[in-house]
Amino acid sequence: MFLLVICILASFWPGGVVSVKLEQPKLSETKLSGKSVQISCKADELANNYIHWYRHLVGEGPTRILYFDKSSTNPTAINDQGFPSDKFDILKREENQYILKIHSAKESDSGMYYCASWDTH
């Protein structure tokens, strides 16, 4: 049985005149293989409605998993190629709190996950 270790990077990406404030309260998450993992992102003061989730594996650059429009009442993820929606999904828990859910996590899902957004001018 393998342990899955997820590292979470708190993302504060400033942009333009309006600040972007993203907060990921947990620094890490450890789960047994086969269990689901939920990673929270709180998004305040965004000029842009889009939030992106990335995964960064050791020795590789960050890769976007999915993005979604946070202004939607029930946001739907738009998954990037190689990140199927039955494996990676988003949930809206409460106002401005969004969850990346990794279903049936396995050791190869270990890595650093972070949410991101940026201001458009």
Automatic annotation (TrEMBL):
The keyword Signal applies. Residues 14-121 form the Ig-like domain. Pfam families: V-set. GO terms for cellular component: membrane. It is found in: Membrane. Residues 1-19 form the signal peptide. Keywords: Immunoglobulin domain, Membrane, Receptor, Signal, Transmembrane, Transmembrane helix. The keyword Acetylation does not apply. InterPro entries: Ig-like_dom, Ig-like_dom_sf, Ig-like_fold, Ig_V-set, TRG_var/const_region. Transmembrane segments: none annotated. Its main location: membrane. This is Ig-like domain-containing protein. It comes from Latimeria chalumnae (Coelacanth). The lineage of its organism: Eukaryota, Metazoa, Chordata, Craniata, Vertebrata.
